Amino acid sequence: MKKTWKDHISMSARYILMLFICLIALLPFYVLMFVAFNDKSRPLSAGVFSLPDFTFDNIITAWNSGGMASAIANSVIITVCGLVVVVILGASAGYAIARFPNKFHKAIFTMFLCCMMVPGIINTIPLYVIMRDINGINKLWSMILLLSANRLPFCIFLYTSFVQAMSPDIEHAAIIDGCTPFSAFWRITFLLMKPINSTVIITSCIGFWNNYNQAVFFLQRRSVYTIPLAMATFYREFTTEWNLVAAAAFMGALPIIIVFLSLQKYFIKGLAEGAVKG
Amino acid sequence: MAVPALLLFVMFFIYPLTQGIGLSLTDWDGFSPSKNFIGLANFQRFFTDKRAVAAVQHSIQYGFIVPIGMNILGFIYALLLDQKLVGKNVARVVVYLPAIVSSLIIGYIWKIVLFTDGGALKDIMTFLGVGHLFRSWLSYPQEAMWVVIIINIWQHAGSVMIIYLAGMQSIPQELFESSTIDGANYWQNLFNITMPLLIPAIKINVITNLINSLAVYDSIVALTEGGPGYATESVSMLIYRLSYGSHTGYATAIALILLVIIMIPTLFVFSALNKKSVEI
Predict the structure, then answer these.
(1) I need a labelling partner for B260 at 20 to 30 A (CA). Which of A203, A246, B18, B46 fits?
(2) Confidence check: pLDDT of B163 > 60
(3) Residue B190 near residue B209 (C-beta atoms within 8 A)
C-alpha cells in the first residue's frame, strides 16, 4: 500500500501529540530543577526559558537544615522491611488460600476482598489508641506493620489468583518425595512466583515510599520522619524561600525517580501484570 | 499458613475498624479517661455541621471528577502510545513518571510552578501571549479546587494509561484484522472491539481511582492545606483535624460516614461494569 499525504499528516500529528504529552509530564520537573539550581538572588520570574545558575547552594542548605539524610534512611527502612513482610505473609497466605480451599480460607479471602474497599484513613483514629497501648507511636516497627497490614488485601488477592493459575504437579511430586506442604511451598512454589513477586514489590514499594496519610499521624518526632514528612515540615519552615523548597522537593523526589528509571522495564511490566491478573 | 497474615491484618485493620464503631458512639476527646456513650448524637451533629457537609461536597466533587478525568486522559494516552510510533516506550516512561512521586511532593512542585507573582507558569503564559489570563488560582475558593483536581488528573493519568495499555495488548490482533476486512473503520473497531474487551481494565481503574479519590488527603495538603478558608477541605482532612482538636468520637463517626460514601458508588460501579463484561 502506498502512503498518501493523509497518512503522513496523521502520522506527524501523532508524533506531535506524543511530544506534547511528554512535555506536559516533564514541565513541572524542569521548573523544579530550574528553581532549585538558581541563585537565591535571582527572582523566580527571571525567565524559565533561560539557563539556571547551576548553583548547589540551595541543595546543600536544604540538605543540612532539612534532616533529609535521616528521612531517607527511615523511608528506606520502612519500605524494605514492609516489602519483606508483605511478600512473606502475602505469598504464604495466597498459597494456602489457593491450594487448600476450605471454609476457613474462603472466609478470610472474602474478608480481604471486602477490605480492599476500605481506605486506611478510616482506621486511623482507633488505631491511635491501639498504637498507644502497644507503645507504637513514633516507632518505625509499628509503621512497618501498619503499612504492611493495609497493603495485605491487595497482595493476597494477587498471590491467590497467581497460585490458582499454577499447576500443582511439581509440589505434589515434592510431597510424594517426602517434603511437607510447608517446605514444598518455600522450596518450589515460592521460587516460581517471581513474576507476581515483582508486581507485589513494585506496587507496594511506591505505596510505602510515598506514604503520608498514616505517617503524619503516627510518626511525630523528627528522628523518625520519612521523606514526605520531612518535606512537609521543611515547607512550613521555609515557605517563602522557594529556592530551598525546590531543592528539598528535588531531593525528596530524586531517589524514587532514580530507582524507577533504572528499573523502568520491570516497573511497567509489573504494574501491567498486576492489572491483568486483577 | 494464612494465619500470620490474618493475625497482622486483624490487629492493625479489623480490630481498629470495630473499635471505631464503638468510639463513634461516644463523646471521647482523645485523651481524658471519661468516655460517655451518647448514641447516634455524633451522626446527628454531622448533618447540622456546615463545615462537615461542605467537606463531603468537596470530597464528592473531587472524588467523581478526578476518576472520570483520569480515565479519559489515560485512555487517550494509551490509544496514542499503543500505536507503532518510534519512541513510544520512552514516552510511556515519561508520562508515567509523575505518578511515581509522592502526591505531597508533586503538590509542592506545582506550588512552585503556580506561585503567585513570579511562578514559572506566568512566564510560560506570557511567552504564549496569554499572560493576562494568569491569576493566582490557589487563592480563590472556586478555582483552587479545580487546580487540585487538574493536577491530580495530570499526575495519575500515566498509571491509568499503563493499565489500559496492558489491556489493549491482550486483545488478539486477528479481531481487528477480520473486522477491518469486513469494512469497519478505526472508530467502529474502537467502540465495538477495544472498549468492550477493556471492561476488566476499566473496572480496576475506575474502582481504585474512585476509592482513592473519595478518601483524598495528601494531594490537597501540599497545594492548599484545605484553604482558602475551608474551600478545599476534604473529609479525610477534616477527620484528621477534628481528631487533633479533641473531637475524637465525632471524627470517628465522620470516618464511618466516609466509608459509606465510598462504598455506595464503588459497589454500584462494580455491579454495573460486571453486567457489561464480555468474554472472548
Answers:
(1) A203
(2) yes
(3) no
3-state helix, strand, coil in chain B (%, to 5): 75, 0, 25
Tens digits of residue pLDDT in B225-261:
877 888 888 888 988 888 877 788 888 899 999 999 9
pLDDT in tens, B96-146: 999 999 999 899 888 888 875 666 777 777 777 777 777 778 888 888 899
pLDDT < 70 regions, chain A: 1-3, 41-50, 274-278
Asked if B256 has any chain A CB less than 8 Å from its own CB, the reply is yes
Q: How far is A149 from chain B (nearest CA, A)?
A: 5
Quote the Cα angle for A170-A174-A180, to 5°. Answer: 125
Q: What does the block give as the cell for B55? A: 467537606
Contact A245 B263 (CB under 8 A): no
Rounded-to-integer distance, Cα B178 and Cα B180, Å: 5
Q: What percentage of residues in chain B have a pLDDT greater than 90?
A: 23
Q: Which of A18, A20, A35, A128 has the highest number of chain B CBs within 10 A, making it the mutation to test binding with B?
A: A18
- pLDDT bin (cut points 50, 70, 90) of residue B40 is confident
State the Cα angle at B258 between A86 and A156, rounded to 5°: 20
Q: Are B145 and B154 spatial neighbours (Cβ–Cβ below 8 Å)?
A: no
Which positions in chain A touch B251 (Cβ < 8 Å)?
125
The answer, for B28 touching chain A at a CB cutoff of 8 Å, is: no
Crossing angle between the packed helical segments B88-100 and B141-169, to the nearest 10 degrees: 130
Which value does ipTM take for this structure?
0.87
